[in-house]
Amino acid sequence: MSKTTRLFAASCLSLSLSASLVLYPSASQAGKNDAGVPNELQGQWRYGQISSIQYQDSYTGQAAAPNGSSDEFQLASNGNYQRNRLLQITTYNCASNLYIEEKGKIKVEGQRLTFQPSDSISKGQICNSGRTYSSRNSAKPETYQWSIETNDHGQQVLVLETTDGKGKAHYGRSQ
Question: 29, CA 20 to 30 Å: which among 15, 22, 134, 135?
């Protein structure tokens, strides 16, 4: 084989390898976008339940406010997120609630997901007393271990677990 033929063959081989690296992403890049958000994380997720059943206080005759909690967020392909959380607790004649709305970026590193808020507002009320509070930009970054699992109904759920392993929540897709 002549020197020219070998040089041509080596150039073709090098060009083919370079093209294959450009055209075919590695397994670690498959299913992600430029912001590093895996496709399976993108979209709207919901956790929690607010009771729709109220009870009537036998002493006052008044209906009690519902109890429960809710956490809903939407993750965009560019890494932006919007998140809304509500906690409502009613005990006897005392209804308290906390509502948090935040926006920011998520950071995904392997199986770790961090919500990094850039704008937030928290509002609440303590025991029907008219004592209310409001706070702006008080939300802090939160990091979780994440995984996608299939529940008993065959639906995929997003599992977020606190980094200390003490809390775990299963989020379903919003319908």
Answer: 15
